[in-house]
Amino acid sequence: MSEKEISVGMLGIGTVGRGVYRILKQNRAEIKQKVGAPVEIKKILVRDTTKDRGIELKDGVLTTNPEEVIANPDIDIIVEVMGGIGQALEYSLRALKKGKSLVTANKDMIAEYGKDIFDAAAAGKGDVFFEGSVAGGIPIIKPLKDCLAANRIRQVIGIINGTTNYMLTRMSRERLDFNEVLEEAKSLGYAEADPTSDIEGFDAARKLAILASIAFNSRVALNQIYVEGITRITAEDIIYASELNYAVKLLAIAKESNDGIELRVHPALLPKNHPLAAVNDVFNAVFVTGDAVGEVMFFGRGAGELPTASAVTSDVMSAARNRLNNISGTVSCTCYDEKKVKPMGDTKTKYYIRINVADKPGVLAGIASIFGNNDVSIASVIQKNTTGKAAEIVLVTHEVFEKNLQDALKIIKDLSTVNEISNVIRVEGE
Ligand code: NAP
Ligand code: HSE
């Protein structure tokens, strides 16, 4: 075993950083054996060195001076777990240019500035590892880059936001309303005080940008992803979906076909017998289809102190082994291609449509003829909640082009017999 010690500098010690500190201490002997040298945290950047962090830290390890971490010549690996983009990006780029390796769990930074990070790593001849940035403790970055590298990846479908999966599970099991479960998710600490990024789908979109870039070897920008959150999902939709044998999930979908790649985050009806339909509560899962391997699914905890720190600490160990062996680039940039992204209107799926209409003869026939004129073929129709004045029609289409469906809905919405198009949800996984 080498005499060298691998020195780590951390940027932040909040939820994830604390977990990394704990794992490195708790599994110290095993980690030393597996790496081939001890791994020591030398300095940690924080905003407030006096704050109680609930763990015993060595005297003098905390600092408010970033230079003591990023410019410290004794430090080999920087663990960026401070979050956000501004300073996290600045410090990460500077550390990489100085030849250090970087481990980060920062999906915002990797999704938006992945190329700059990889370029800086190549310039400094260091490594970048970011397993914790998508789906917390679930191994998915390394499997896509490495274990599945021999495949052409056809599709990646993920439940990669724990907060919304928890909310949809509660709505489904307890028949609760969106606002009720949102308050519950906040009180349990799953949803942030400002939950916009989770419930509007942006958190999942950032993670999808990272996964799709790796899966298709083509850099995906956030603005290329169609994003729709779960705020319009109601208890009725979940009940009707269940009667039709579907679960409702927020899916992050990346698919490749001959005419380009599809990138979308939206709620979807998923057949109850699809493996992702059984992924409940705060759990995450990623379902990958490769041309050689077929279907594989990765499941586990997508957030939280120790699950995320499990991914981050394992990355630290990979970076440490590389430093000991004087190598780098094992998880380097693989975006060698530039693939066309399909416009959303050209995507084809089945749809669930809930329409509130006047309860009169001929209303359904009128709607059906508009769908027909726009090449939207109906697979099934059920009528719900008939009150004498109004009725709710729930339709499921065959696979149709998004643009045809939207054209039909524009006309239907203005019919005098239509009170409201209550919801339109895509159907996936059939
Ligand atoms: P957190 O609990 O808010 O901790 C952030 C830490 O960074 C704190 O120690 C804070 O110092 C320090 N920090 C923040 N800004 C700073 C600045 N400008 N200068 C110096 N120190 C600063 O965050 P977290 O939940 O651990 O998340 C860290 C990263 O992991 C984020 O990128 C997040 O997206 C990602 N991630 C988190 C989870 C999760 O379950 N939490 C899961 C997957 C990925 P003070 O304590 O002194 O304020
Ligand atoms: N807000 C995220 C989630 C945390 O709910 O999954 C992990 O990135």
Can you count the beta strands? 17
- Tell me the domain tally: 3
What percent of residues adopt helix (DSSP H or I)? 25-40%
Q: What fraction strand?
A: 25-35%
How widely separated are the two ends? 53 Å
Q: Which structural class is indicated by helix and strand composition?
A: alpha/beta
As a whole number of angstroms, the C-alpha radius of gyration is 24 Å
Distinct ligands, ions and cofactors found in the model: NADP nicotinamide-adenine-dinucleotide phosphate, L-homoserine
The poorly predicted ranges are: none
Descriptive account of the structure:
The chain is built from 14 helices and 17 strands. The mean pLDDT is 96. The protein has 3 domains: 152 residues, Rossmann fold (3-Layer(aba) Sandwich), CATH 3.40.50; 160 residues, Dihydrodipicolinate Reductase, domain 2; 83 residues, Alpha-Beta Plaits, CATH 3.30.70.260. With 430 residues, it is an alpha/beta fold. The N and C termini lie far apart (53 Å). 36% of the residues lie in helices and 26% in strands. The chain binds NADP nicotinamide-adenine-dinucleotide phosphate and L-homoserine (HSE). The site of NADP nicotinamide-adenine-dinucleotide phosphate has 23 residues, from helix 1.
Write a concise synopsis of the structure shown.
This protein folds into three domains: about 5-135 and about 305-325, NAD(P)-binding Rossmann-like Domain (Rossmann fold, 3-Layer(aba) Sandwich), CATH 3.40.50; about 140-300, Dihydrodipicolinate Reductase, domain 2; about 345-425, Alpha-Beta Plaits, CATH 3.30.70.
